[in-house]
């Protein structure tokens, strides 16, 4: 299993960590941000193919921002892909 630690930009979250193996995401955590929403995202994507996470979450925005923690997760995943 490989581990990624990513520093997001333009969002409240300060770090995104996850593991991946065989093209699937596991153990996703966010440092900072909206805890309830980000814990929910982590539960929903656990075991999901990386490409599916990108397809579902890429381009998601937060309020007036042009990005979101979910969108930043897709940028981290794209570095892996």
**What is the total tally of β strands?**
3
Task: Let me know the average pLDDT.
Answer: 97
> Biggest sheet, in brief?
3 strands, antiparallel
Gyration radius, in Å: 11 Å
Query: How many distinct helices?
Result: 3
| Secondary structural class | alpha+beta
Q: Count up the domains.
A: 1
Q: Spans of 5+ residues with little confidence (pLDDT < 50)?
A: none
Strand proportion? 15-25%
Q: What is the CATH class? A: Alpha Beta
As for the CATH topology, it is Enolase-like, domain 1
Strand order within the widest sheet?
A: 1-2-3
* CATH hierarchy: architecture: 2-Layer Sandwich
What letter string, H or E per element, gives the SSE order?
Answer: EEEHHH
Shape type: globular
Helical residues, percent: 25-40%
Distance between the termini: 15 Å
What's the layout of helices and strands?
Layout: E1 2-6, E2 15-21, E3 24-31, H1 35-45, H2 50-57, H3 69-80
Antiparallel strand pairs: 1-2, 2-3
Helix pairs in contact: 2-3
């Amino acid at each position: 299993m490989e581990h990624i630690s990513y520093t997001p930009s333009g969002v409240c979250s300060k770090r995104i960590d996850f593991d991946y193996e065989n093209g699937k995401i596991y153990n996703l955590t966010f440092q900072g941000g909206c805890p309830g929403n980000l814990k929910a995202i982590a539960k929903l994507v656990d075991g999901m193919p990386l490409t599916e996470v990108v397809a579902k979450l890429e381009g998601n925005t937060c309020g007036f921002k042009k990005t979101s923690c979910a969108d930043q997760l897709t940028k981290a995943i794209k570095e892996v892909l």
